[in-house]
């Protein structure tokens, strides 16, 4: 029994997880964690956070973006080499201290920034393991939630997963068939089926994580190399060194459920899509897939953003999904609610004035046919000039207001979709922790989550 399984004390587990993002990862990572906590509390389960650190995609996790004083996103990175070594093998370099100094300069000054930076500096120390710092950072946000943070690279976890890895090596035909049938279940599979590729990775002699490919009935190769292994030799290696093996994205849930009594998994959109491919693989391993629950979708707003949403009659999802359409719609709505077209109104006004003046003109012109018709014509021309001049000024005012409304809509979209990405993906949780503090941000998200329906759109109002 693994330490993580031990920690559930025989109770079912509600699981979520994410790659170990720099400085605690994007805001949605916190949303997934709190979604799992809420669902676990409501069902008497234990919340488990799977730290995906077998992954070797260091470029994806070794970056964090923060807005500067002008709202432009600045990317901070440790510059770690993308060399196929798993995240679990990475130690934080001395440069992490300078990166934290850069983050401090970008985060808004105040007591909550100091609180946030203190927690970051405690976790992100030179020489600490990359994913351990992530765990410390995230666990400090939920000190009272009894979350089990599971590191799948520990010897105990690898030992528990060994039987899953062995079946992939022992029954490659059946595994491939399950992957092929799973891919056919959905019209646009998140993880396409590739003939010959198995959902299993091996650390080579240099510690690089490489996928296993089939080369004949009993031979497997390390993808991207000329290295070949006989299947029996790999089974013998697995017996002695299970830590060198790790699951691919479609096998990871099977390993998860071999380690934990999973009843539900709180998933992001991409995870939910690939879980739809898994029933044949679960059946092969004699397991029932857990319930897949969408994670919360978060938008954090301050007083200014909240007022802009109200003025434009928009939701946070509107601003985040299609900012250009929001700007056009808001401008049209503002014009339709306040005034008709100035040029059309000027023309109808002049028509009414001419009709009203006709009896007056018809009665007086005969008194001096040589002068009064010209005088009336000049008067009508002058009236038309001034009416049209006012109409042009009104049209200019509407244009300015349309421009202002569009500018407001674009600023709103920039706040909720910085850099063209959803706010929860573009910005880390620390961007909001530094403004509101842990208690306020975490408390408001927890209060907003509906445990019966965690995957709702949640607008977190930091101004209240």
Name its key features.
15% strand, 14 strands, alpha/beta, 464 residues, 5-stranded antiparallel β-sheet
- DSSP helical segment count: 20
Helix content: 40-55%
Mean of residue pLDDT values: 90
| Content-based structural category | alpha/beta
Rg value:
32 Å
Number of strands: 14
How many domains would you count in the coordinates? 3
Cα distance, first to last residue? Answer: 46 Å
The low-pLDDT segments are: none
What is the global morphology?
Answer: elongated
- Main sheet properties: 5 strands, parallel
Give the secondary structure arrangement, pairings included:
Blueprint: H1 3-7, E1 13-19, H2 27-43, E2 46-52, H3 58-61, E3 64-67, E4 73-76, H4 96-106, H5 111-123, H6 130-139, E5 148-150, H7 155-170, H8 172-184, E6 197-203, E7 209-214, E8 219-222, E9 228-230, H9 231-240, E10 245-247, H10 252-259, E11 262-267, H11 269-275, H12 279-284, E12 291-294, E13 297-301, H13 303-312, H14 316-321, H15 323-338, H16 342-364, H17 372-416, H18 423-426, H19 430-436, H20 438-448, E14 457-461
Parallel strand pairs: 1-2, 1-11, 2-5, 11-12, 13-14
Antiparallel strand pairs: 3-4, 6-7, 6-10, 7-8, 8-9
Question: What does this 3D model show about the protein?
Answer:
By secondary structure, the chain is α/β, with parallel strands linked by helices. The chain has 3 domains: 3-153 and 430-461, no CATH class; 155-292, no CATH class; 304-420. It has 20 helices and 14 strands. A hairpin with a 5-residue loop joins strand 6 and strand 7. The two termini are 46 Å apart. The mean pLDDT is 90.
